[in-house]
Write a structure and sequence with these properties.
The protein is an alpha/beta fold and about 300 residues long. Helix content is about 40%, strand content about 15%.
Length: about 300
């Protein structure tokens, strides 16, 4: 397998990113990068990013999560951030991403985790919750889902076509557009940092085609995951934003179907698709509420 590894000097002096890189190898020698902050004995919070971002997305949440008494663990998915990037699209699949993250969790032996996720972080993270519920204490979900063959919303269909056919794919500017706030030039450059070449963007371009909307190979796996979530009775809190055209209304699927969502203080946060850029404090508060609910059950 041919792999692109972004040079380390691309990650120097990024705004609000003082964290030392850590690495774990998973299948086929692929290296997963992650940030691990806070006391090792504290309850882990798995901060799982989506597409086309990397762990930098959580820079405004890592410190407050640690200050709230948790261990903040933020990996880069294979193909993103400082993690290894296979340069052939056939190396990627939805199932492979779930397997790689599962291997990473098992390598670190993470337990009693709270999953905080958005976008592809939910597609992968919720599959992990379904496959290994004994390792999770609860979920804080924002602007994400677990589609199982529904028709693609128009906004997503446009995004999927853009990611496949556009001759340019300016990741920092894409994040800026979805953040509903003007990122600084340094922040935009930080989102671009892992992706300096066309080959380094393969995963970012191919991921939208993997979302199981319509006829998709992953639909049977999604239905099995939903069956597991329909038995998940640990705290499950939805905190979607008020300005995301892709996931708007998707929280109702979870509040209606996941037992752990009953009685939780679901709330609407401010901002666009990338809630971490608009309302990081609200997302951290949701994590705290999940932990508190777990203590009271």
């Amino acid at each position: 397998m041919r792999v692109y590894r972004t040079p380390d000097d691309r990650f120097t002096k990024l705004p609000d990113w003082p964290y030392a890189p850590k690495y774990v190898e998973v299948a086929e020698g692929l290296r997963v990068h992650y940030v691990d902050e806070g006391a090792s004995e504290a309850q882990p919070v798995l901060l799982l990013h989506g597409e086309p971002t990397w762990a930098y997305l959580y820079r405004k949440m890592i410190g407050p999560t640690v200050a709230s008494g948790f261990r903040a663990v933020a990996p880069d998915l294979i193909g993103f951030g400082r993690s290894d990037k296979p340069i052939e699209s056939r190396a990627y699949s939805y199932a492979a991403q779930v397997a790689w993250m599962r291997q990473w969790i098992e390598a670190l032996d993470l337990r009693n985790m709270i999953l905080a996720c958005q976008d592809w972080g939910s597609l992968i993270g919720l599959r992990l919750v379904a496959e290994m519920p004994e390792r999770f204490a609860g979920v804080a979900l924002s602007n994400g889902g677990l589609p199982e063959g529904q028709p693609a919303p128009r906004a997503f269909a446009i995004w999927r076509a853009f990611s496949r056919y556009s001759p340019v794919f300016p990741i920092g500017r894409i994040v800026n557009a979805g953040a509903k706030r003007q990122l600084t030039p340094g922040e935009i450059a930080a989102y671009d940092a892992p992706f300096p070449t066309r080959a380094s963007k393969v995963a970012a371009r191919v991921f939208p085609s993997f979302v199981p909307l319509g006829d998709n190979v992953a639909v049977p796996d999604q239905k099995r995951a939903w069956a597991a979530l329909e038995a998940f009775d640990k705290p499950f809190l939805c905190c979607f934003t008020d300005g995301d055209p892709i996931t708007r209304g998707g929280d109702a699927l979870f509040t209606n179907r996941v037992p752990g969502a009953r009685g939780m203080a679901h709330r609407t946060l401010r901002g666009g698709h990338f809630v971490q850029e608009n309302d990081p404090a609200g997302f951290v508060a949701a994590i705290r509420d999940v932990a508190a609910a777990g203590l009271n059950r």
